[in-house]
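Action item from last meeting closed. Structure (369 res):
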């Protein structure tokens, strides 16, 4: 199969879809890989490192799309790429369709095969979302600590406190991968952490495995409203695969928070779980509303691209090989986890949550496979 790896052109996105090691595995399996000039440079991978494993370097983005039967990316295509995408071309990347009608419409019109990392599902787990959730969860605490500093507009508190001084209070909403990583980071820095979830089995797991300064709490509107009054850093990580994130912190709740509180919305790719969140960038990462700092960068792991690119390729490579070796249709027939990643096929929406998000016609995947 002919595989193309374009340079990411989303603002401040420094990751790349494939490491040289990943490219080597694909080439050794008998496939051809072309990568755009300097696509891996910001992740720490030079053109030479790709050429040494057998990749060909292409200068132009358009040449990559023209060549490839399968595109391996990190982030969703943006408007400059829409017209480059061909019918029947397989796009293997993060899409997060439910947060963008424009993207959804463009991919329907392209008649491409859109296989989304974030909805590949294996026994209830999201294996291609986990590595970036790990990075984003850890970064959420790290970024929150920074914006709690007074020069950044924050409350002016050190997460771990010092001798004789109380530490900060961190509130994590969502006990999944990202939430657990955020809580661990906060606990490691010495903060008092409360982590909320509605799954009792997950709460029992967190109770047994988290440090003593992490308190798992059953999530409901009453407990959330009570906790926001004492929290200095609030991290939202709630995700419903393929759907928009639920708005758990409402606009009217901002007035109950301490001025200088920091909200970090890890779920912003899926529309955000704070009603007042707006997508931001690494260049301008925060918005202040009613004295509350909102951090909602849509590609948080892009700030640490060497770590993120390596972790992502480790997770996606076996699936990419399966797609290349068998073709997308047979690979998805043989692997139900991979089939769950299919969102749009030749103009048809085959992922129900995406169809429901925009009241679009839904086609059963089985009728196509």
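Sequence:
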């Amino acid at each position: 199969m002919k595989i193309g790896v374009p340079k990411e052109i989303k603002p401040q996105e420094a990751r790349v879809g494939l490491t040289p090691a990943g490219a080597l595995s694909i080439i050794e399996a008998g496939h051809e890989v072309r990568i755009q000039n300097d696509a891996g440079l910001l992740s720490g991978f030079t053109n030479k490192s790709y050429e040494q494993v057998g990749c060909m370097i292409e200068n132009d983005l358009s040449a990559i799309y023209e060549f490839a039967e399968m595109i391996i990316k990190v982030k969703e295509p943006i408007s400059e790429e829409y017209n480059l995408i061909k019918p029947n071309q397989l796009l293997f990347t993060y899409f997060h369709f439910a947060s963008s009608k424009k993207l959804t419409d463009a991919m329907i019109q392209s008649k491409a095969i859109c296989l989304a990392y974030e909805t590949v599902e294996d026994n209830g787990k999201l294996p291609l979302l986990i590595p970036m959730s790990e990075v984003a969860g850890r970064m959420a605490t790290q970024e929150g600590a920074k914006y709690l500093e007074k020069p950044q507009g924050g409350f002016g508190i050190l997460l771990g406190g010092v001798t004789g001084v109380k530490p900060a209070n961190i509130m994590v909403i969502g006990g999944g991968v990202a939430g657990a990583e955020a809580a661990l980071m906060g606990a490691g820095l010495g903060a008092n952490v409360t982590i909320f979830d509605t799954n009792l089995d997950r709460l029992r797991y967190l109770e047994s495995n988290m440090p003593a300064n992490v308190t798992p709490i059953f999530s409901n509107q009453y407990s959330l409203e009570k906790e926001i009054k004492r929290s200095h850093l609030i991290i939202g990580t709630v995700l419903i695969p393929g759907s928009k994130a639920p708005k758990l912190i409402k606009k009217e709740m901002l007035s109950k928070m301490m001025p200088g509180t920091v909200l970090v919305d890890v779920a912003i790719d899926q529309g955000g779980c704070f009603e007042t969140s707006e997508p931001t960038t690494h260049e301008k990462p925060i918005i202040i509303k009613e004295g509350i700092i909102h951090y909602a960068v849509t590609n948080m792991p892009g700030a640490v691209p060497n770590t993120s690119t390596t972790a992502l390729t480790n997770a996606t490579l076996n699936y990419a090989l399966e797609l290349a070796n068998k073709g997308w249709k047979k690979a998805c027939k043989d692997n139900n986890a991979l089939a769950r990643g299919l969102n749009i096929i030749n103009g048809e929406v085959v992922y129900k949550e995406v169809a429901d998000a925009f009241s679009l016609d839904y086609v059963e995947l089985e009728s196509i496979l």
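Note appended to the action item: The chain has two domains: 2-126+305-368, 130-298.
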